[in-house]
Design brief:
Blueprint lengths: L5 E2 L5 E2 L1 E5 L28 H13 L4 E5 L9 H9 L6 E6 L4 H11 L3 E5 L5 H8 L4 H14 L3 E8 L5 H14 L2 E6 L17 H11 L3 E3 L10 E5 L5 E5 L12 E4 L4 E3 L8 E2 H6 L4 H13 L19 H4 L2
Parallel strand pairs: 3-4, 3-12, 4-5, 5-6, 6-7, 7-8, 8-11
Antiparallel strand pairs: 1-2, 9-10, 10-11, 12-13, 13-14
């Protein structure tokens, strides 16, 4: 008999797990990491592939069917295709995806595909080399574009471009990115700037909103219309160009939070379980596993963590407190 699903006190069923495999990254986006003196977790504290697979299998036994591998930058994790092969072999996983900045995709697009990966989200804020350098502090735009070409050539089923929308910075990039996505069969996804940077640079006035971007694209490219019958639990609101030229997604975590339909839990690279990206607390799964806990104990911890999930992050209220960990340390 199947185990009861992972349900919190607000009735939200959780079937989506995001697993960070490293807190390290090969670029330094200003809204995520400091440029220098970044404090990474010691390698001995990072979960190994056996531990990750074990946790995923326990989660799957409780109803998890969707899995996303994140970082830091996941492609800097040594032998990542070997982990993807392990995870792709779990029959209950219906959707396996990976988020990357794309810098190492020229070499790894094919090995990851051969290991069983079929969906990619590639972080790309701009097609302008100078602005790319300003945002990431690295001159790697050419490699990211080569990586996208490689992924397209290999045959990934769905490639999304994730762009963080920071006001008074990326406005010149919105339309070129959307056109580039249309021309290559990718789906652009614009993400409102969130208070998860390591340097406390976030301010609500710096958020370029989803509504502003929709108006811009509708005016400059083609009218955007909401996708009919959307998945109510998906974090992105999806739109289609009225001329049939593809889709665009918007993650409006600041102006239109989707907390009420959230179905996700997160495992950090150092083995901490989090019920929300913005959570102020986390549960130590690694300590339990390394102490020799049985799968039933891990499952019980998972259930307790989900049961204790809060209603939402409260970004739009005076009660909001930014999490003590920045994005790269939590997992994107």
């Amino acid at each position: 008999m199947a185990a009861p699903p992972l349900v919190d006190s607000f009735g939200r069923i959780h079937d989506n797990l995001r697993v960070s495999v490293t807190d390290r990254c090969n670029i330094r986006c200003f809204y995520c990491m400091p440029e220098t003196n970044v404090q990474f977790v010691r390698r001995a504290e990072i979960l190994d592939f056996e531990e990750i697979e074990r946790f995923v299998r326990v989660a799957v036994s409780l109803g998890i069917t969707k899995l996303r591998v994140t970082g830091g930058e996941p492609l800097v994790r040594r032998d990542l295709p070997a982990l993807i092969r392990r995870l792709a072999a779990i029959p209950e996983i219906q959707d396996l995806a990976l988020t990357t900045n794309g810098v190492l995709l020229p070499e790894l697009a094919a090995p990851l595909y051969e290991a069983g990966l079929r969906r990619l989200n590639v972080h790309l804020d701009t097609l302008d080399r100078e602005r790319f350098l300003r945002i990431t502090r690295r001159d790697d735009l050419g490699r990211v574009l080569l990586g996208l070409e490689a992924a397209k050539r290999v045959g990934y089923a769905r490639i999304k471009l994730n762009a963080v929308a920071v006001k008074d910075l990326v406005e010149p990039d919105i339309v070129p990115l959307a056109r580039y996505a249309r021309e290559n069969g990718f789906e652009a996804r614009f993400i409102e700037f969130m208070p998860l940077d390591a340097q406390n640079l976030w301010d609500r006035s710096k958020v370029l909103t989803a509504d502003e971007i929709i108006a811009m694209l509708s005016r400059e490219i083609a009218p955007l219309v909401p996708v009919p019958d959307p998945d109510p639990r998906a974090p992105a609101s999806e739109y289609e160009y009225a001329d049939g030229g593809g889709r665009v997604g918007f993650i409006a975590s600041v102006t239109k939070p989707f907390c009420g339909n959230c179905n996700r839990i997160r495992l950090t690279a150092d083995g901490k379980l989090r019920y929300c990206l913005f959570a102020l607390e986390e549960t130590d799964v690694k300590a339990l596993m390394r102490a020799g806990a049985a799968d039933e104990e891990i499952a019980s911890l998972l259930r307790r963590t989900v049961a204790g999930k809060w209603e939402g992050h409260a970004i739009n209220s005076a009660k909001f407190v930014a999490p003590p960990r920045p994005m790269y340390s939590i997992g994107g």
